[in-house]
Amino acid sequence: MARLLFVLTCALLLAPPLYAQDSEPADVLLRKFDRALNAGDRAAIEALFGGAVVRVQVQQLERDLLIPNVVHITLRLRDRAPLEGAPPGDGFSLIVEFFVETPGKARILTTGMDIRRPSGGAIDSWRFVGFESLTSVEGLYKLRLNTTRPFSAKNLEINSEDLVLMLREGTVFQVDSDEGVTGLVLIGRGEMRFNPANAAERGQVHLFSGDDALTTPFEEAFVRISPSNYNERVTTASLTPTTPQERLVRRAQDVFARESPKSFSVDLQDLSKDTWHLLPPSQDFLAEVDTRRFDTLTYSRSSVQAEDVSVFRRKDRRTIALYPSVAKLAARGRFYSDDALREYDVLDYNVEAAVDPTRQSIEGRARLAIRVRATSLSTVLIRLNESLVVTSVTSVEYGRLLYLRMRSQNTVLINVPRSLPQDSDLTLVITYVGRIPSEDLENEAVQTRPDSQEPSTQSATYEPAFLLSSRALWYPQNPVPDYATGTLRINVPEGYSCIGSGQLTGAPGSTPVSLRDILSSRSGRTFEFRALQPLRYMSIVVSRFSRLAESQIDVSGLVSPGSAIDRIALTVESQPGVRQRGRSSAQQAEEILKFYTSIIGDAPYPSMTLALVESELPGGHSPGYFAVIRSPALLGSPSYRNDPASFDGFPEFFLAHELAHQWWGQAVGWKNYHEQWLSEGFAQYFAALYAQKARGDRTFVDMLRQFRRWAISDSDQGPISLGYRLGVVKSDVRVFRAVVYNKGAAVLHMLRRLLGDTVFFNSLKRFYSDRRYQKAGTEDLERAFESESGRSLDRFFERWIFGTQIPRIRYNTTIAPNAVNVKFEQLGDVVFDLPVTVTLTYANGRTADIIVPLTEMVVEKSIPTTEVVRQVQVNRDSAAIAEFEEK
Fold first, then answer.
1. pLDDT digits (tens, 9 = 90+) for 495-522
2. In what order do the strands lie in the sheet containing 619-621?
3. Rounded CA separation 807/786 (Å)
4. Cα separation, 150 vs 196, whole angstroms
5. What pTM did the predictor assign?
6. Alpha carbon of 334 to those of 163, 326, 337: distances in Å?
7. Fewest CB within a 10 Å sphere: which of 144, 619, 703, 734?
8. Beta strand residue intervals within 650-748, DSSP E
């Protein structure tokens, strides 16, 4: 039951029953068993078991199935295999599922049952000769809306963390279960008050509602609650029994029918036509509130989530708030990793797939080598795109397995016959088929101006590129992904090419053992990729590519001692429309890869392929081993200049940014979405470093100026630590790039200037080396920098990564004989650590930059001079993210 609660908000869709071609013996025996069970005829039940089954075992099975108040027992044959040791045709091992129903409660029992007959015996001679209880699902309930005993409410309060639902006047209908009251339907004059304690979440609520607290009237609400918490959460003294009114009863029934299936519901299909539910665990809570102003809002408290308090709007999937409860925060601390939720590791993926880019379809088979991390594991949760149909699940150890598919979820639940202990291994083979759309890179491309009147350059003549990457869930994978090696064998139609995660292989003997080779009968071309360096996820892109260039980049003189890679195989593939532009990319990519390798002292992957594709807007995507670079038809179009990631003086920006992701985002991942800046902010800054090397200081300063402008304009939308959620409330993806990309890059530059180049770059090397092929968090980065610098950086990261404030600095300068005196004062009650550049321009035109670290509320500095100073400028290079005013 505890494992099942992980998917409380999902509805389960059972896989179709498996019937053998010749299932007559099993069918006949199971029909007899069905009749005997539902008649409660113990003598008839026991007569179906052979002498090898001891009576006490049969009696235990009867106790499991013939429970008090049983209404009906449904049997389903899920699998059949020959019985080991029996002559062919004389014995079978069955997997049988029992749905045991009482008036208000049910359970599912999965049992292994062996059947056999005497050699040559008649159909009536088959008997059960062995059985084993494998797994069970408990706690399925029928919910009943109590319309015969409604309550009149006056100032009724229902509470959960940071939430109060107040029904000032109205009618309440209880939702009953066998365990007690598990829900309420509220009708009347009500008010929802949501007031998160978390400062960042208050900011998001303010963006959504116009106030730090979301307060809105409602007339209808549906609440789910654990029966054990009912009296704690509900002010029952505010309820008075009243007479049912037909109009209100119908209204309550409509609310119940509309809202109750959305969460905690289980669709059992061939086992029961009724709707069954789970009960929320203790302290969990759900409210669907039909507000006047904001449509229906969902508040959820779900203890199995790392961030267990959320408010969202279902209709547009808009997350308004998401954060840990006080209890969760106390239990796990501020910093956490998604890995805490991981019950197993996938050590290696082996994926075979036939991909048709024109039909956007895939037929695949994946082998997952799994190691159990949990204390014990009997159900394996797998993520796979909901549009893909699973046709079979088997394991090397246990054969064919029962699986459940989540409705409207990218999730598959696989039942393992026996609980697996920690550190045990399991090999799953999952076959699947279906249509799947190409992954949309809109959020990874610059955006047109909202007010742009220019006609779109999008044309039907653009060659499509079929991309399947992390968000597509195109192969079965761990719900909490971690690093794993992998092999891809991808078949595509003639005329198409495939680029994938891993090194392209083809040498004799390099092909791995095939999974019953679903590709052997396929025409077209098959590409094989092997990733011996661990990856966060595997990706492919399929299109009509042609090869423009390939080379071997020698990085042996750039890497640190002990680095495993001294050469990078670079390949450039291009669609026809961008071949001319693509020819310059090979040389640029080689220079960029060498430059980044020299900074870090390591190359994460031994090969790199560029896939150049036609597109209306520039952008890119960079899985391990390759990068997709979108090349627009009209470079420098003014329609997309108003974007944080648009740099007019640096046309190779996207190439530099995406290649940096091989180090930041791929080789070093992020522990949770709050840490995305370790990928995007780092890639942005490394692109700026390359711009400085390739195009000079002026381009670099122009980028810093743009970093500062966007950071100041959009910091009030949320802190860097809010990750992908930035801009969601206002549906503006540019906010994410403004804060996570640009402000994140600016924060790194300020840290560099505070600590100096030697400490900064040594710290980056330490951080990369410590976390290579692992996930990382801001605390890991801080620890690396503190180790190298010998100073505490808590305040620096707290202000810049977790805060939204922009410092305001008042300054004055005085030119004196042989010195320039400067004074800085931070306004407000918060002290920031930031370096400020003071630029002195001498009478002869020469300039000098002096960095003044501001680490206190007031800082004064006397700068010695030996020449006549004509002008003093503050933050001319835009390197400090602050607003300055001269006194």
1. 999 999 999 996 433 444 454 456 666 7
2. 546-554, 567-574, 607-615, 626-632, 619-621
3. 23
4. 32
5. 0.89
6. 22, 11, 10
7. 144
8. 668-670
